[in-house]
């Protein structure tokens, strides 16, 4: 690793943590006080039309049992509901309710507010360069599936 990149892992992890913490605090301030950041990663997977518990488990890299427990919790809290799967009569689709969609909209606004100070310091060229650099590290669809 180049000497000038030696502190990059700590900086990237710190930045990711600051982003998660900022979004979480803002979402809570918007009234969604009964959620944890892990729920946001589940919402990201469910927001594109739903997913099965198995899909959710794969996305979150947890067991199917843990994904089912999370789904039950989110159903109890009114963020998620079960629907018949359109192509598999044995499966159930987990989909966001209106409350769940409202929370994802609040999280999108929170992300924009959290990133605003960084955006204010970057020129358009610097922002594009940062995006290109991070694209080399990121796996497309890992956090939010590509639709």
From TrEMBL:
Keywords: DNA-binding. Residues 5-139 form the HTH marR-type domain. SMART domains: HTH_MARR. It holds the Pfam family MarR_2. GO terms for biological process: response to stress. GO terms for molecular function: DNA binding; DNA-binding transcription factor activity. InterPro entries: HTH_MarR-typ, MarR/SlyA-like, WH-like_DNA-bd_sf, WH_DNA-bd_sf. PANTHER family: MARR FAMILY REGULATORY PROTEIN, TRANSCRIPTIONAL REGULATOR, MARR FAMILY. This is DNA-binding MarR family transcriptional regulator. The lineage of its organism: Bacteria, Bacillati, Actinomycetota, Actinomycetes, Micromonosporales.
